[in-house]
Design brief:
single chain, globular, 48% helix, Rossmann fold, four-stranded parallel sheet, 4 strands, alpha/beta
Length: 147
């Protein structure tokens, strides 16, 4: 593996109205806000789709982990389309297959199973982050955990 990076971008699905999309976003928030706030940075898929220069520049210059809610893999495809490197792509459905007892229900508010599934995904993402990062993000990114 190459030298550790200073920060990893987390790009979750934006599947609004779909439980697996909500699971991907909840997992991303847990990683960025709670588990690895100094090593990760959230990039909203919608900003990439809309052509936001700051988001596209971040994706083109920093390694990314994508969290896709369905087989369309929009987050992974968009990161690559923007010239980014997907260090690891996660599909919520694959995580669900390993944790069939954690069936997500709800959209605006996930049930207990959905929240536990999001935590399982966040734990897997954190392990990948730990294998990729240096001790902390650059100062210019630290103050803003979301792009």
């Amino acid at each position: 593996m190459s030298e550790p990076t200073q920060c990893v971008l987390i790009v979750p699905c934006s599947g609004i109205g779909k439980p697996f999309g909500t699971v991907s976003r909840e997992a991303a928030y847990e990683v960025v806000e709670d588990l690895r706030p100094n090593q990760t940075h959230l990039v909203a898929l919608s900003r990439l789709v809309m052509g936001d220069v700051e988001a596209r520049t971040a994706v083109a210059t920093c390694p990314a982990i994508t969290l896709d809610g369905c087989k369309l893999a929009c987050a992974t495809k968009m990161v690559r389309e923007c010239g980014g490197s997907v260090m690891r792509g996660f599909a919520v459905l694959d995580v669900y297959r390993r944790h069939r007892d954690l069936k997500p229900h709800g959209i605006a508010r996930l049930n207990d199973g959905g929240l536990k599934l999001a935590h399982a995904l966040a734990t897997e993402v954190t392990a990948v982050v730990d294998s990729l990062v240096a001790p902390s993000c650059p100062a210019e990114i630290k103050g803003n955990s979301h792009v």
